[in-house]
């Protein structure tokens, strides 16, 4: 068969497939709408932490639960996990560096690819793209916003003079979320401190110690000392731009990552300084000091996905997470469930899209670790972060393909809300929904980066 005929047949097959998928889609959506009409849409207020959603269907689908979803099927044994040593992380692994990067830090090796791509004129890797990406990190890398010490902005002495702020824990929960919203958080929750989710030591081996002998956060040459009285964690989400993720895995796509890491620093840094001004201790955190995903789950902001990331009911996986540990009395939020883990059992889209095959394709979670950087003991889907990071390096420093593929990253339309609502109540349509996600053109990452710079229109911040 010659190439022209083969292409023609491929195009016909593609049209046939999409046509069938669209019919199935409307059939499924009709069923979903019927389910909604029969009583799914009964609540108008969201029960998950943070900002109100306009979708009654999604609001109803999100249910408070007594245990964090990582303790519920299909997951198990989270209590077996030990506090993680940051030095084991793929980013800092000496073993991985020697095996794949010639002993260099991964970002040094990635820079070689960036320079190569720039010289070859690869779309999405121009000097403009890389300057755009680098500058996006300015607030995260170029400021002291994650300092454990007061920044000198809030008037700390004022609270010492008039006394600490006093309100009920429930009032403080409401106030904190209003402040977080103004400081740029897309959604905010509060968790009770679980020391299990804090690092045991940093990448150089300095330990994090919860201390009864310290009244303020203290960093010495020997250790990071955290007062035991600091027992609440404020968790804030920085939603990434899913339209930028469509340019994955290029440097252009990574610009939204840098932008939201900067937003993390600004939200956490400002929140910490605000709390200090009320007379209380605060430690702002990005990816340092503690894990982010399990704390966000504890704070009622989502579930654990197949790709090891947080899945939020509105933003999906397109979020970055910052935290503030404090002793301000705040009522915690309850964890939530909306069917994400069950959907992940069927979906597989992130695993199928992953170019390095780093994400498990097993239907059910297991205790089988994927690489030496995993923290063993829990039943979950383990991600091979070594092959993932190696793919990052070969991409020039990032990827984002699994984020772009996630079906929970969707425009806010009634049909997508129906799908989310139905998938939270039944698994019957999960396979169909995942298939139709591709057929209708979502979950792709095939945009030409030249379109971004050549178009007269700006890329919308959210669908």
From TrEMBL:
Matching PROSITE patterns: 4FE4S_FER_1, 4FE4S_FER_2, TAT
Superkingdom: Bacteria
Primary localization: membrane
Protein name as annotated: Tetrachloroethene reductive dehalogenase
Pfam family, one: Dehalogenase
Entry keyword annotation includes RNA-binding: no
All residue ranges annotated as the 4Fe-4S ferredoxin-type domain in the record: 334-364
One GO cellular component term noted in the UniProt record for this chain: plasma membrane
Cofactor field: corrinoid; [4Fe-4S] cluster
Keywords of this entry: 4Fe-4S, Cell membrane, Iron, Iron-sulfur, Membrane, Metal-binding, Repeat, Signal
Cell compartments where the protein resides: Cell membrane
An example Gene Ontology molecular-function term: metal ion binding
SUPFAM superfamilies attached to this UniProt entry: 4Fe-4S ferredoxins
